[in-house]
Specification:
180 residues, single chain, 10 helices, disordered C terminus, mainly alpha
Length: 180
């Protein structure tokens, strides 16, 4: 008998080894056997890693309304829209996600990242500080704060966050933007 847990666990290991296409296929098998939101979140993350943003959106939109709300799925959807330069859709999703799940650091950080790209630095700072408050050891959020301060010309503050990033990250690849 096929096991959705075995498929999902194997897919997880493939993700670690950056074998995203194989992970995507196994998550799809797992999802077909166990229709649940966590597997959809992981499956859509694997599809994102293959850079197939349209497929990511199609899969999420097809299934998300039949599952419990999952902010990780919403973040993946927003990332796909951002990657396709559909900023209005991404912003709407992220703003909704931070309202519904205030304790989700990923959605806070993505909204901060979005605002950096829009050069809306005070808003970016607000959301990135919230993300780092929720997950103070996440090197991605610290890196984004460094980017924010670098963009605003505050090199001293940028350096402070970059140094924190390097200190807690064992395998940081610079330049790194947002590793999800």
């Amino acid at each position: 008998k096929e096991s959705p847990i075995l498929f999902a666990n194997t897919a997880f290991m493939y993700m670690k080894f950056e074998r995203f296409k194989e992970a995507e296929e196994l998550y799809e098998k797992s999802f077909s056997l166990s229709f649940n939101d966590k597997i959809l979140e992981d499956w859509s993350a694997a599809i994102l890693k293959t850079l197939n943003y349209t497929k990511t959106i199609q899969i999420i939109e097809k299934y998300k309304d039949d599952l419990p709300y999952n902010s990780g799925i919403e973040c993946n959807l927003a990332l796909a829209y951002m990657s396709l330069d559909k900023q209005d859709k991404a912003l709407k999703i992220l703003e909704n996600t931070v309202k519904i799940d205030k304790n989700n650091a990923k959605s806070q950080a993505l909204l901060g990242s979005f605002y950096i790209k829009q050069k809306s630095y005070p808003r970016a700072q607000k959301y990135l500080l919230l993300a780092t408050k929720l997950e103070p050891e996440n090197h991605n959020w610290l890196k984004l704060l460094g980017d924010l301060f670098y963009e605003t010309g505050d090199k001293q503050e940028a350096l402070k966050y970059y140094e924190q990033t390097i200190k807690i990250s064992k395998d940081l690849k610079i330049p790194q933007y947002l590793c999800l």
